[in-house]
Every structure is written in structure tokens, then in C-alpha cells.
Write a structure and sequence with these properties.
The chain has 529 residues and is an alpha/beta fold. It folds into 2 domains: 218 residues, YjeF N-terminal domain (Rossmann fold), CATH 3.40.50; 281 residues, UDP-N-acetylmuramoyl-L-alanine:D-glutamate ligase. It contains 19 helices and 17 strands. The strands form 2 sheets. Strands 8-17-16-15-14-13-12-9-10-11 form a 10-stranded mixed sheet, with helices on both faces. Helix 8 links the parallel strand 6 and strand 7. Helix 3 packs parallel to helix 4, helix 9 crosses helix 17 and helix 13 runs parallel beside helix 14. The longest helix has 28 residues.
Length: 529
């Protein structure tokens, strides 16, 4: 599902209306109907609720007028508070304002903050408030009458539903630009916008429903639309049932190069996660003195000792042995728990150009690469980097807060420059592709903000790369399943108590749920043919 900017949405609207000939009033009618449908799904008898529609003079207000008409047609008695004079309403919105006026639906025209104070009493009596003041075109903070209206809407104890976007938010940024409605439900029209998806703006959205309004889906297939929300249905094929004649070689052999004294757990978590994600074989190559603790973590893991430094990290002298281990491997993970010891860094920078299979670089591998990013251009196979914001800040040489603020720009820029896939971890993890596309992962919860969860993700991505020829699909499916396993763990244990090992333990349940969902979908399709 594409995530659009306001400009992209306006362009699609224009094509639908001007080139395809879909009348604007039809789209407005569909929008209002979708809001009414959402209300009916949440209230046993919405017509019995006291509904107040706070409307602006633009098309968002027009959608609100349609809502009022359909509620009245159902036996309700909605009221409309119009934050403008009636003659200021133009176009399609004017058509619908004229209709509800002739129907006798009360419309109060409010043009000043003083007039608003006299009219706002209706909000206190309302059980539902429909916010139809501003849509996705807003780009500056609300002031005066509009700011006062938003403040009083937020004070109302009523259930608040926003039409398309809570008034006061800009569709094009996840930052809050000024006062805005705190909605319980937002019905996004046609497609989600940036503010719907990313906090802090998304915290004002409440429950998000994305509602089609009659725009042909083909208009969203434009390759110029680069930002996309990952949907489970598109990933289920990566979790289907296995063929009867499959064997361990069918599902690939993952090499994990990780670990040091005090950080053996990182290597163990990555290896265990790779096995639980379905890799046929997993070998963990680690510093010799660390190997016993890794080997004890899971009987099914294979291990290889590598030469170590006096600090018991992997030494540069281990390069020939590690290079030999690359033979026959389907995917490689480099980085968890390695440290940035000078000898270890020499080892990593020497090993990476020798990797021909898909390679995931994580954790200390990223910290080492940050000083010598040119090594990425010398890698032969697909490369996936999995930084958290701090690691990515080191990769791009920018402050951490700037990385967070500009991640939708910086992540795809780095991916394109170096020809790699970037998995920028965090709430709404981003997967940025070398071709400029960016995918937003919807799964996961704050319980994942604990040490080791990134090591688990690295192992999962490597396992999916070992099993799938589709590099992007492998990465997206692993990121989605990782978050889903975290959601399963949080449901069982709570977010606060969740640790990385719980994600590995909950992986079977998450993967089974994805497999079952895919099976049910296929069975349903078969029954209809």
C-alpha cells in the first residue's frame, strides 16, 4: 500500500477527475460514505448518537456534509458547525452544503473566535465529533478560530473521528507543526499519508482506517511513488508449506561471523534466530575462546573457532580460515558482538570483499564499515545493512537527531549511493532499496527496544536470504516476521519484560500464523474458481 505526500495525492485526484472522468462529487460521496461506514462499525446505532460535524470551507468540509446527509437519512439528527460563511464554500463542497441546507440539517456559520465560543456548547453535548475542517493540504500551524476549535474538540469527551487526517497535521511530515485534533479514529481517504504512519504525528491519528473512494488501484502503481507500507498479504508466499521432497540443503547454509568475550550472546542469538527462521544449516564462526558458550546455546548450531586477539575478539589472522568457510554458504551475517578492536576491524574489512553470497552487515560490522564505507562497493553479492539510528548516524556522518528527523531522505540516499539495502531499525522500521523505494514495516512494539533484538533480526534476514532468490522479499518478510514475533511475545509476556530470547522462542508461533493465513487465503481462492 503506497504512502503518499499531499502533492502525490492531488496528482492522483486530478488524473482520476480530469483524465478518467470520475466526477469530483462522486469521490466526495464515497469519502463521506466511508466515514459513515466506519462509524456504523463502532456504534450499535449511530443514528441515536449526538453527532456534531465541525467543517471547513474546502473539500474536507464537503466530505463532512456528506456524512451529515447520510446520518440524517438513517434517522439521525446531526449538527454542522461550519467555520466559514456559507458563500465561501465552493465547488463540490458547495453542492453538498446546499443539499443538507435544503434537507433542514442545522448548519451554524462561524467566522470568528467569539462566534465559536457561543457555538461550542454543542460539542459538550455530542457523543461523536466529526473533524472535517482541514484535509491533507495544510502546511502551516493553525491560528485564531481554527486553533480555538481544535482546542475545544480535544476537550470534548466525545468519540472523535477525523476525515482523511486530523486537522492541524501536515500530511507531509511526521512532526507536529502546531495544534491538531487528537482523533480516536482517522479514516484516511484512498491512501495513507506520511503523518498517518510515523510518530509523533501518528499519535494524533488514533485507529487508522484506509478507505478506498473509487480511485482505480492502477493509479497507485506509478513507479514514481516510492514510499510503501508493507502488507502481510504480499509476504505470505515466503512462509508457505514446504515441498515433501525438500532436504536441509534446499533451505540454505548460513554463516554467522560474530561474537567476542562478553558478547557471545549476540552470536548465539543470531544463530538461533537463523535456524528458527528455517535455514537448513547454520554455522557460527567466532573467537576460539568464545566458541564453547555459543555451542552450548543450541545443539543444532554448528560452530567454527577463529584465531583471536589477546582481548579474545576475532583476529586479523583469522581471515584465511573465515574466507575458506565462505565456500558453499548461501548467506552470510557479519557483525553481532564483534567489537571494533583494530585487529577485528582489519579482519572484517578483509573478509567483506570476499563474500559472494548475499551478506548482512550488522552491529559492530556497521561500526567498522562506517570508517571505510568504500568497502561496500567492493562486495560482489547483494548487501543488506541493518543499523539502528546511532549506527546509521555513524555511517552517514550526521548527528543522531538529524538521522531520526530526516530518515525518509537519508536512508534511501545512502542505499542508492552505495548500492545496498538499508534496514533502518526502530518504530516503523524502514527498508530502503538502491532504486529509491522505501518500505515501512508495520509490526513490532516498544518491547523490542532491548539488547539483542537486532542480533535476532540479523539472523532472520540471513536465513530468509539463504532460502529466497528474491532479495527484497527476503528482507521484507524477515523484518515483518521479526516484528510479529515481538508482538506475540509482548502479548504473552508484556512489553516491559520482553527480551531478545523471547522473540526467538515466539518465532514458531508467528511463522505458523503467517503460514496458516497464507493457506486459508489460497484455500479461499480455490473455492471460488
Amino acid at each position: 500500500m503506497k504512502i503518499l505526500t499531499s502533492r502525490e495525492m492531488r496528482r492522483i485526484d486530478r488524473i482520476a477527475i480530469d483524465e478518467l472522468g470520475i466526477p469530483g462529487p462522486v469521490l466526495m460521496e464515497n469519502a463521506g460514505l466511508r466515514v459513515v461506514r466506519a462509524l456504523r462499525a463502532r456504534f450499535a446505532d449511530v443514528a441515536r448518537e449526538r453527532t456534531v460535524i465541525v467543517a471547513g470551507k474546502g473539500n474536507n468540509g464537503g466530505d463532512g456534509f456528506v456524512v451529515a446527509r447520510h446520518l440524517a437519512n438513517s434517522g439521525g439528527r446531526p449538527e454542522v458547525l461550519l467555520l466559514a460563511a456559507g458563500d465561501e464554500v465552493k465547488g463540490d463542497a458547495a453542492i453538498n452544503l446546499n443539499i443538507i441546507g435544503k434537507m433542514g440539517i442545522p448548519v451554524a456559520e462561524i467566522r470568528t473566535a467569539a462566534a465559536w465560543k457561543a457555538a461550542r456548547a454543542g460539542l459538550r453535548r455530542a457523543s461523536i465529533v466529526v473533524d472535517a475542517v482541514f484535509g491533507t493540504g495544510l502546511d502551516k500551524p493553525l491560528e485564531g478560530l481554527y486553533a480555538a476549535a481544535v482546542e475545544d474538540i480535544n476537550k470534548s469527551p466525545a468519540f472523535k473521528v477525523a476525515v482523511d487526517i486530523p486537522s492541524g497535521l501536515s500530511a507531509d511530515t511526521f512532526e507536529t507543526i502546531g495544534p491538531s485534533v487528537e482523533a480516536d479514529l482517522t479514516v484516511a481517504l484512498a491512501a495513507p499519508k506520511i503523518a498517518h504512519i510515523f510518530p509523533p504525528a501518528a499519535e494524533r491519528v488514533g485507529e487508522l482506517v484506509v478507505a478506498p473512494i473509487g480511485i482505480p488501484p492502477s493509479l497507485f502503481d506509478d513507479p514514481g511513488l516510492k514510499l510503501e507500507l508493507v502488507e502481510e498479504g504480499a509476504l505470505r508466499r515466503f512462509f508457505g508449506k514446504r515441498k515433501r521432497d525438500a532436504h536441509k540443503g534446499t533451505f540454505g547454509h548460513v554463516l554467522v561471523v560474530a561474537g567476542s568475550v562478553g558478547k557471545s550472546g549476540a552470536a548465539a542469538l543470531a544463530g538461533r534466530a537463523a535456524l528458527r527462521t528455517g535455514a537448513g544449516l547454520v554455522t557460527v564462526a567466532t573467537a576460539a575462546g568464545v566458541l564453547p558458550s555459543v555451542a552450548r546455546s543450541m545443539a543444532e548450531l554448528m560452530t567454527e573457532p577463529l584465531a583471536e586477539t589477546a582481548e579474545r575478539t576475532i583476529a586479523a589472522d583469522a581471515l584465511p580460515r573465515a574466507a575458506a568457510l565462505l565456500k558453499g554458504k548461501s548467506a552470510v551475517l557479519v557483525g553481532p558482538g564483534l567489537t571494533t578492536n583494530a585487529s577485528t576491524a582489519e579482519f572484517v574489512l578483509g573478509l567483506l570483499p570476499k563474500v559472494k553470497a548475499p551478506c548482512v552487515v550488522d552491529a559492530d560490522g556497521l561500526n567498522i564499515v562506517a570508517a571505510k564505507a568504500d568497502v561496500l562497493g567492493r562486495m560482489a553479492g547483494p548487501v543488506v545493512l541493518t543499523p539502528h539510528p546511532g549506527e546509521f548516524a555513524r555511517l552517514v556522518g550526521r548527528p543522531n537527531d538529524e538521522v531520526v528527523r530526516r530518515r525518509l531522505e537519508l536512508a534511501p540516499g545512502f542505499a542508492a549511493k552505495h548500492g545496498v539495502t538499508v534496514v533502518l531499525k526502530g518504530h516503523r522500521t524502514l527498508v530502503a532499496c538502491p532504486d529509491g523505494r522505501v518500505f515501512v514495516n508495520p509490526t513490532g512494539n516498544p518491547g523490542l527496544a532491548t539488547g539483542g533484538t537486532g542480533d535476532v533480526l540479523g539472523g532472520m534476514i540471513a536465513a530468509q536470504l539463504a532460502q529466497e532468490k528474491d532479495v527484497l522479499g527476503a528482507v521484507l518478510s524477515a523484518v515483518y516476521a521479526h516484528g510479529l514475533a515481538g508482538d506475540v511475545a509482548a502479548d504473552r509476556l508484556g512489553e516491559k519484560a520482553l527480551v531478545a530470547g523471547d522473540i526467538v522462542r515466539c518465532l514458531p508461533a508467528a511463522l505458523r500464523a503467517l503460514e496458516r493465513a497464507g493457506g486459508e487465503e489460497r484455500e479461499g481462492k480455490g473455492a471460488g474458481t
